[in-house]
């Protein structure tokens, strides 16, 4: 197993990693059309006000990423995510995506990043707003969300398309209607 490290960066830090190693440019390609040789890590959304957890290999290559956007209720946001959900009455951290390079899948990197996102939300206090799921996310990451949430029971989570803010104190699982998560309490 390669020597990997997790780091937390803002958009400037991400840009520095890209500039420092052109091999990482693939990570910035936006594409919902599926994977290709040119786009092995789909949807690392670069935004000026984004926050990122990245898993970097020993050669400085980004192998996994989590993209988040912080938002303070009532403030104009300088990026394209605008949530007018009336159930969000507080600050929130929008988890836009988690992506893992196709050659590094199945080793727990996405789950590790998801744990880091929950730890950040628990430490900083906003509602963690989790966006819809692509098929790979439904299959590999979504099953771990309730268990990770249970490790951070005070963290408030709201899933896209749901109207209820959850804590990790009550057991639940996620079921899907296409990319829309539905909560099923246990």
Q: Secondary-structure element order, as H and E?
A: EHEEEHEHHEEE
Q: Number of helical segments?
A: 4
What gap, in angstroms, lies between the N and C termini? Answer: 36 Å
Low-confidence stretches: 29-43
Shape: globular
- The appropriate CATH architecture is 3-Layer(aba) Sandwich
Strand content: 25-35%
Give the helix level as a range of percent: 10-25%
Based on secondary structure, the structural category is alpha/beta
Number of DSSP E strands: 8
The biggest beta sheet reads: 6 strands, mixed
CATH homologous superfamily name? Answer: Gcn5-related N-acetyltransferase (GNAT)
CATH top-level class:
Alpha Beta
Q: What is the strand arrangement across the widest sheet?
A: 1-2-3-4-5-6
Mean pLDDT, nearest integer? 78
State Rg: 16 Å
**Count of the separate structural domains:** 1
CATH fold descriptor: Aminopeptidase
What do these coordinates show?
The protein has 186 residues and is α/β, with parallel strands linked by helices. The chain has one domain (4-185): 3-Layer(aba) Sandwich (Aminopeptidase). Helix content is 21%, strand content 28%. It has four helices and eight strands, in the order βαβββαβααβββ. It has helices at 11-20, 109-124, 135-140, 145-151; strands at residues 4-10, 51-57, 62-71, 92-100, 127-130, 157-159, 172-177, 180-185. A six-stranded mixed beta sheet has the order 1-2-3-4-5-6. Strands 7-8 form a two-stranded antiparallel ribbon. The longest helix is centred in the middle third of the chain and has 16 residues, at 109-124. The chain starts with a strand and ends with a strand.
């Amino acid at each position: 197993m390669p020597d990997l490290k997790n780091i937390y960066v803002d958009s400037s830090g991400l840009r520095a990693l890209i500039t420092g190693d052109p091999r990482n440019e693939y990570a910035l390609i936006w594409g919902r059309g599926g994977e290709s040789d040119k786009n092995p890590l789909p949807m690392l959304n670069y935004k000026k006000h984004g926050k990122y957890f990245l898993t970097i290999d020993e050669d400085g290559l980004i192998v996994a990423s989590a993209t988040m956007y912080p938002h303070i209720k009532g403030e104009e946001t300088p990026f394209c995510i605008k949530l007018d959900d009336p159930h969000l009455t507080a600050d929130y951290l929008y988890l836009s995506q988690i992506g893992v390079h196709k050659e590094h899948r199945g080793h727990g990197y996405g789950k590790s990043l998801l744990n880091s996102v929950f730890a950040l939300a628990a430490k900083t206090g906003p509602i963690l707003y989790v966006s819809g799921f692509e098929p790979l996310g439904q299959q590999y990451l979504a099953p771990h969300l309730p268990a990770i949430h249970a490790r951070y029971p005070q963290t408030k989570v709201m899933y896209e398309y749901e109207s209820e803010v959850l804590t990790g104190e009550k057991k639940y699982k996620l079921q899907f209607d296409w990319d829309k998560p539905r909560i099923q309490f246990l």
